[in-house]
């Protein structure tokens, strides 16, 4: 492994660590308005009386809904970032992949919130069940599906973390033989 390759590997993992510091605040700072504003815009088109109140509290269809950090799903964005950054690829491919991952998750997340908002206004009984199912199972499945679609679209052949470890191991083993 050349010094340049080792530096790139080190840099990728440092970025992961730095972006994970401070309780994912950067992810929430970026994705909170990107989630709340489109959600409100769609709800405004569906409900005449839709209003956005302070602290991400929305009023629509006679109910109040608070979009909390769990709804923003900063940890899901972070997981997608980890999967991307721990997979060897060119910078151009990485940036396109990250854009696809984040944009796709953002769109699906906004749609999910709007669907739950609609369920909440029409059938409170179904809301709790649907929300819990999505919370416990759907969110993980959603991230996995988005990652695999990303792998397919960008023809990614390497495995996150494993490929880096394998390459480092080969370098150490081949270094000892010389």
What is the gist of this entry?
This protein is mainly α and 178 residues long. It is built from seven helices and three strands; from the N terminus they run ααβββααααα.
Task: Describe the protein.
This protein is mostly helical and 178 residues long. The protein has one domain. It contains seven helices and three strands. The chain has helices spanning 3-20, 25-46, 69-72, 74-85, 91-122, 124-153, 162-177, and strands at residues 51-53, 57-60, 63-66. It has a three-stranded antiparallel beta sheet, covered by helices on one side. The longest helix has 32 residues, at 91-122. The protein is elongated, with a radius of gyration of 20 Å. It starts with a helix and ends with a helix.
